[in-house]
Amino acid sequence: TKADAEVIANSLGKKICQMVLSRFIERAKLSQYDNDEEEDICSAPDVIMLVAMSQHAPALRIIADLGGTSALCMVAGEGHIPALRALLKNAESSVVLQAEGHLQLLKLLTEDNIDTTIETRVAAMELLAQLSRERGGNQAISEAEEECIEVINFALHCIGALEIAVEEEVEEEYLDVPAEENAEDENDMEDEEGETQEETDNEGEEQEVTEEPVVAPAAVTRRKKKKQASKTEEVVNESWIKPPPLPPPAPPSLPSAEKTRKMAEKNKLQTKKQEKENELKQEMKLKYACLSFLSYVVPVPMCLQELSRHGKLVPIVHELSKTDDLRLPSLQFLQTLAPLATTCPILDIDVLGTVFIDTLMDQNTTAMDSKQMASQGLAVTILDFTSKELQEKAMVAISTLIQSNVKKCAVQRSMSSSDQKNRTLLAKLTFTLTMIVRQVVGATHLRSILESKDLLVSLVHLVEWRYDVRTAEQQQQQQQQQTKKAAKKVDDTEQFLYWNGAVSQALSYMATIFHRISPTLLSKLQSTVLTIARPGKAPRKTSNFVTSLQRVVQPPLQDASAVLAAHQILGNLQHQQG
After folding, report:
1. How far apart are alpha carbons 473 and 565 in whole angstroms?
2. Binning pLDDT at 50, 70 and 90, where does residue 478 land?
3. So what's the pLDDT on residue 35?
4. What element of type H or E holds 261?
5. Which SS3 state, helix, strand or coil, does residue 528 take?
6. DSSP secondary structure code for residue 485 in this structure
């Protein structure tokens, strides 16, 4: 249990770690000699005890304080799955890097003398991806240059971007047999087949003889006929008095050999099917871990140089992004490549942009976090597109998505942690999309999209929702509930941080283009009011745009950018009305 693990770690943790390390030192000394019988370290009692304690985070922290992380990393380097899982789940990445655990993982994935299963490779790649995400982790991994390049090629092979030629040895078992012996064997087989055929024919003749019908006697006496007739009459006369006797119960049928064989084959097929499904799941996990690892090591120049040797990398990852299970890591990898597209010759910015645009346009199956990755990649690449048509397509997708997000934010939700997490993702995505709108405001060929009525009305509704009186009260109530119920705290500070940023971006953008808005559209923006849906209650309406702007500029002032933009918009409205 957790308590037992802590007690053992405090009392015996240091001694157990020393025993484990001494085993590896002793094996290293014996490796100088020819010793065919190598000890299985992972089955030693002290190693088993160390791994068992490490399954609990408090005990592993005690072991780390005692300097025992290196012992656990060496056990993980043997391909021990429980040790790998313990480091992945309970250990701090910085501590594992200090213990040079990444070197053990690189050795595990590159050396041929270590037998690894697909589950071992999945656990090792997941842990390596987690270490590379740590600050300075990708640089530490790249310092082992040869092993790092081998692991990168292994990851590319797993996702299908690199073909590794494997030479298969063909065993010719029958080529060494002389031709004369082959001829004699064939003659013996023919004689045996002939004898078997004769025995089968004889058995068939015997069966034909026994199956001949029995012939009745040619004549039957008159007396016998009378006796048979009288017996028949008695049976007929008595048949209406009592029913015929029931047939004897059939003996219990035993499963035949054929039925047993079919059941065995069915179980065998079911087992093979389950094994195939488990293998496919493990392969999907391995691809996910490989894509995550590649995403974190891309910024390292040596790793980028190695990746740039594969020209079909982006199209292959694009195909992987169409799979639901691999969409997020694929987009994360491409989003990491986006800032490097201008310096890396193999990366086509338009191809990357197409991937991001297709993700944003998919309204049915794409999750919110995947759209966030795509929007971040699009924010980096949209100004470098060589095609104006592609920029227009991108802005149409962004405009549609902003309108959809504003409608979602206007629906009151519950206080559950999962719902708050989704609303935080929604706020992040909306902020990124409004930031892109600000980026391309100077593109004249995009004005018809950027200054459309639907987009501007959605931006006005966003401001009205955020500075509505009820929204502010709801935020204060949530903060008070979080203070009272600290145990069930749901932190929404990050959510409102991004909502405030999105509103600030929207106001700054509208302040930039407000002088070009037609009087008809201006009247529409001043009169439009957002309707907030409330499950189980009647919908309610927010204040109009002008009232919301006046609340923005009232003290206490929260965002200087939003306040200045609101002042400018109010000034333009007064000037046009005056």
Report:
1. 24
2. low
3. 57
4. helix 257-297
5. coil
6. -
The DSSP secondary-structure symbol of 42 reads G
Instruction: Return the closest-CA partner of residue 114 out of 75, 166, 83.
Output: 75
Cβ contact 561:500 at 8 Å: no
Q: How far apart are CA 353 and CA 338, in angstroms?
A: 9
CA dist 124 and 526 (Å) reads 59
Which of 298-307, 380-389, 443-452 bottoms out in mean pLDDT, i.e. has the lowest?
298-307
What's at 52, amino acid-wise?
A: A
* Strand duo 540-541 + 531-532: pairing: antiparallel
The b/e string for 226-254 (b: 16+ C-beta within 10 A; e otherwise) is eeeeeeeeeeeeeeeeeeeeeeeeeeeee
- Asked if 506 and 441 touch (Cβ cutoff 8 Å), the reply is no
* Three-class secondary structure assignment of 443-478: CHHHHHHHCCHHHHHHHHHHHHHHCCHHHHHHHHHH
User: How many angstroms separate the CA atoms of 228 and 236, rounded?
Assistant: 12
Task: Average the pLDDT over 3-20 and give the result.
Answer: 89
Burial track 529-559 (b if 16+ CB lie within 10 A, e otherwise)? ebebeeeeeeeeebbbbeebbebbeeeeeee
Whether 321 and 330 have beta carbons less than 8 Å apart is answered as yes
Q: What is the DSSP letter of 163?
A: -
Burial of 14 (0-12, 13-18, 19+ CB in 10 A): middle
For every residue of 356-373, which 3-state class applies, written as one string? Answer: HHHHHHCCCCCCHHHHHH
Chain centroid, CA 241 distance in Å: 78
For residue 495, pLDDT beyond 90: no
Give CA–CA dist 37/99, Å, rounded. 29
Residue 454, token pair as written in the block: 């639907």
Instruction: For 65-89, write each residue's pLDDT tens digit.
Output: 888 889 999 999 888 999 999 999 9
* Kind plus residue range of the DSSP H or E element containing 532: strand 531-532
DSSP string for 71-134: HHHHHHTTT-HHHHHHHHHHS-HHHHHHTTHHHHHHHHHH-TTS---HHHHHHHHHHHHHHHHS
Residues in the chain, overall count? 578
In whole angstroms, give the CA distance from residue 160 to residue 330.
13
Contact (Cβ atoms closer than 8 angstroms) between residue 532 and residue 412: yes
Look at residue 179 in the predicted model and tell me its pLDDT.
Answer: 47
CB 482 within 8 Å of CB 416? no
Bond prior to 556 in cis (omega within 30° of 0): yes
Helical axes 545-553 vs 560-577, angle rounded to 10°: 130
Residue 374 · residue 360 · CB < 8 Å: yes
Distances (CA, A) of 463 to 2, 456, 459, 558, 578: 50, 11, 7, 14, 24
Helix (H) and strand (E) counts for the chain? Answer: 27, 2
Q: Strand, coil or helix: what is 510? A: helix
Segments of 2-48 assigned E as strands: none
